[in-house]
Design goal:
Length: about 325
């Protein structure tokens, strides 16, 4: 991956202006029963209600709209397990340019359907990062399309930072912000926003125990690049990106790892109390609060619900998550 300039908060502000006519201003949800259960005041940024069903549309839209016309006309390309691919397809369709998405075998069917419905061309590959990247390099050479990396692209990072910007506008006195972390686009963008607008707000990253490379990277101050993810959170299986880790390390972000069982229980609570369809990756943020209630007791906490693209044929687990 060619080194890229790190984005700054000015890039987040530019992204906010650029995507405003295209992205949804998602609501901030609050539920008194969840406050009582956790002892904290929880404010959920409902990015599962974003276009494409995930925050990913913000970064994809910003990256696509920032391209000069001549370059954009050749189309865009990415690799994605689902949400970024769907977001890029939607953003490209909105600009009237071709989109190509390399998808690993085993991706969630609901996400694949979104990619296809938005009009992108889907290219299958083996379920490894190396296979994804090799396919993208081949297609880029063949098509001349611009590669929009799912989380390392500076315009993508800046676009993702607009979710935290909107949340802070709605709830300016947050003590902590919890975001899911996989490749780190949302986490890094949120770090840029907090540093500029709420420097005393603690940034906490929710990560699956079975894909805890970011937590280990932050502990050792060196990026972990070799690991095999084992988690139901399909959107968080990617390794932390190099520019993303650099931003998060500078921001002194902390990480809380949660088990799949804790994530499933949190997902059930979100469905039950907020009446919202939230996917496992998004539910990790509530799982982090439920795991460490003393850490958040009495505090105002923002939580970004990253997506809601759930395979509805696979929700039988709800009956096994315990009762509330």
């Amino acid at each position: 991956m060619k080194p890229q300039t790190l984005p700054d908060f000015d890039a987040v502000l530019a992204a906010a202006a650029r995507i405003a006519p295209h992205a949804r201003l998602t609501p901030v949800l609050h539920d008194e029963s969840l406050d009582a259960r956790t002892g904290a005041r929880l404010y959920f940024k409902a990015e599962h209600l974003q276009r494409g069903g995930a925050f990913k549309f913000r970064g994809a839209c910003n990256a696509v709209r920032a391209l000069p016309d001549a370059i954009a006309a050749r189309g865009v390309l990415t690799h994605s397990s689902g949400n970024h691919g769907a977001a890029l397809a939607l953003a490209a369709a909105g600009r009237g340019i071709p989109a190509h998405v390399v998808v690993p075998e085993g991706a969630v069917r609901a996400k694949l359907e979104l990619i296809a419905q938005a009009g992108a061309t889907v290219h299958r590959c083996a379920p490894t990062l190396a296979a994804r990247e090799d396919a993208c390099l081949r297609l880029q050479a063949e098509l001349g399309a611009t590669l929009i990396h799912p989380y390392e692209n500076p315009q993508v990072i800046a676009g993702q930072g607009t979710a935290a910007l909107e949340l802070l506008h709605a709830t300016p006195d947050l003590d902590a912000l919890i975001v899911p972390v996989g490749g780190g686009g949302l986490a890094a963008g949120s770090a840029l926003t907090l540093a500029a607008r709420a420097p005393r707000c603690e940034l906490i990253l929710a990560e699956p125990t079975g894909a805890d490379d970011t937590a280990r990277s932050l502990r050792g101050a060196a990026r972990v690049t070799v690991f095999t993810p084992q988690t139901i959170c399909d959107g968080l299986r990617a390794g932390i990106g190099a520019p993303n880790f650099e931003i998060l390390l500078a921001a002194r972000a902390a990480a809380i790892t949660v088990s799949d069982a804790e994530t499933q229980a949190a997902m059930r609570l979100l469905w039950q109390h907020l009446k919202q369809t939230v996917e496992p990756s998004g539910a990790t943020v509530l799982a982090a609060v439920l795991q460490q209630p003393a850490r958040f007791a009495g505090r105002s906490v923002g939580l970004i619900l990253s997506g809601g693209n759930v395979d509805l044929d696979a929700i039988a687990f709800c009956a096994r998550c315990g009762t509330t």
